[in-house]
Design goal:
By secondary structure, this protein is an alpha+beta fold. The protein has one domain. It contains one helix and four strands. A four-stranded antiparallel β-sheet has the order 1-2-3-4. Strand 2 and strand 3 form a beta hairpin. The termini are far apart.
């Protein structure tokens, strides 16, 4: 049995309980969820696809 995921809040989320995104990593995927709707589950992405997404987002920064 695998350990439960360790969720981390986005550094862009505020600390007052506002709209937040959390992520957790496993050996081969990244999971993303909305903290206001945790009961609805999460989205999973292959680690390589998540890394490509982050590179693209960061490359568009001014």
């Amino acid at each position: 049995m695998s350990a439960p995921p360790v969720w981390r809040k986005s550094s862009y989320s505020n600390q007052t309980g506002g709209h937040c995104v959390e992520m957790a990593e496993s050996s081969d995927s990244v999971m993303v969820r909305d903290t206001r709707h945790r009961r609805l589950g999460h989205l999973s992405f292959p680690s390589g696809e998540w890394a490509a997404f982050l590179r693209e987002v960061k490359s568009d920064r001014p």
